[in-house]
Amino acid sequence: MRDDNINRNMILNECLEALGLVLEYDLNDFHTHQHATRVGEGCVLIGDRIGLDSKNIQKMYYAGLLHDIGKIAVDLKLLSKKERLSDEEFEVIKKHAVYGSRILAPLPELNDVALWVRWHHERWDGTGYPDSLHGNEIPIEVQILSAVDCLDSLQTPRLDRERLTPDEAYKVIENDRGTYFNPEILNLVLDMVNNYELIPGQSSDKFLNLKEKYVNIPLTTDIYGQWEGYGMTSIYPIARLFAKVIDAKHHYTAGHSIRVSVLSKYLALKMNLETKDIIQVEIAGLLHDAGKVSVPVEILDKNGDPDEMEWKFIKGHPTHSFDILKNIASLKDIAEIVAHHHERLDGKGYPKNIKGDEIPLLSQIITVADTFDAITSTRTYREGRSPEEAYKIIKEELGTQLNSEAGSILLETQPKYIKAIFDMHEEHGHV
Question: For residues 192 and 370, which has the higher predicted lDDT (pLDDT)?
Answer without folding.
Answer: 370
